Amino acid sequence: MTLRTAALALTLAVTLSGAAVAPAEPGETAAGADGEAVPQGDDFYCKERRLGTWFYCEKLKPAPGEAAPPVDPRTAAERLKAIGAELEELKARAVLDPTPDNVTAYIRFQREQLNRASTFADYWQRAIWQNPELDYTLQRPVSAVAKRAWTDQRKGDRDRVLAAISQRYGVFYFFASDCAACTVSSPIIKGVADRFGITVMAVSMDGGPNPTFPNYLVNTGQYEQMGLSGNVTPALVLFDTVTRRPLPIGYGIMSQDEVMERIFTLTNVQPGSDF
After folding, report:
1. Same domain, 122 and 155
2. Is 64 exposed, middle or buried (0-12, 13-18, 19+ CB in 10 A)?
3. Given Cys at both, which of 175, 202, 227, 258 links 254, Cβ 3.0 to 4.6 Å?
4. Domain range for residue 194?
5. Quick one: angle between helices 180-196 and 256-268, nearest 10?
6. Residue 50 Rama label (left phi>0; alpha psi -120 to 50; beta)
7. CA-CA distances (angstroms) from residue 104 to 90, 100, 114?
8. Is 243 buried (19+), middle (13-18) or exposed (0-12) by CB count in 10 A?
9. d(CA 105, CA 99)
10. What is the number of structural domains in the chain?
11. Is residue 133 domain-resident?
12. Is residue 60 in some structural domain?
């Protein structure tokens, strides 16, 4: 009988008898013809031959199961409130009963919250750096160099607007002859008007004169028509000749820059767009 015929006969015999021959797993041993254990698979290379440590010599161990941390059912706002309450309790305990343990517990817990706040501030700053739409300093710079550039541009825009404002707007200036603040305010108002060619209608609330505005009117209801009340002087009102609407600028003494800035804001800046 040839070797091939013998192998075929053995295969048929195993099949008919229902026996199954399982190959040895790596690291297992099989019995030889004389019953002696014969190294199989990885044992032959990893243990008997000692050829070194290879990836197949180390058996993978399943990772130990880790219990999931318990979920806090409270909302973030509730947790933050609880932290604040605990901090106040530890503080009160340390003040009323200043033992080493109480003071240490308060300092340690406070330090934890300071670290948390510092981390929050750090992320806040990084978010602003990386998201320009969140950076308020792009609208109103705070650094000296950027603020100077913004101020120069703002003054340029303001002066261009005020230079053309006289074509549409006029100013009502209400004063009283015995008003000390009016004596200071009158030259300031005249300086702005002369610079930009704005017409000023000076109105005396008590009928008395004003050296700065000799061509004044006596109030016959103009104060109330401009939407003012209380007879407060000095009072400055911008009047729109197109819409026929008064725009009160302010009361009391104002510098020239302040008067110009208010006129620019009232006539050229939408509410909420420049803050």
Report:
1. no
2. exposed
3. 258
4. 145-268
5. 60
6. left
7. 10, 6, 15
8. exposed
9. 10
10. 2
11. no
12. no
In whole angstroms, give the CA distance from residue 226 to residue 25: 101
SS3 at position 232 = coil
- Kindly list the distances between the CA atom of residue 249 and the CA atoms of 16, 28, 116, 228, 266, in Å, as whole numbers in the listed order: 110, 97, 47, 11, 8
Asked whether the beta carbons of 128 and 134 are under 8 A apart, the reply is yes
Per-residue pLDDT of the chain in tens (275 residues, 90 and over written 9): 554 554 444 444 444 444 444 444 444 444 444 555 444 445 555 665 555 555 556 665 656 666 667 888 989 999 999 999 999 999 999 999 999 999 999 999 999 999 999 999 999 999 999 999 898 888 778 788 888 887 888 888 888 888 888 889 999 999 999 999 999 999 999 999 999 999 999 999 999 999 999 999 999 999 999 989 888 999 999 999 999 999 999 999 999 999 999 999 888 887 876 66
Helical residues (DSSP H) of the chain, grouped into ranges: 3-17, 42, 76-96, 100-130, 144-165, 180-196, 222-225, 256-268
**Which tokens is 105 given?**
């517990």
- What is this structure's pTM? 0.55
220 occurs within a structural domain: yes
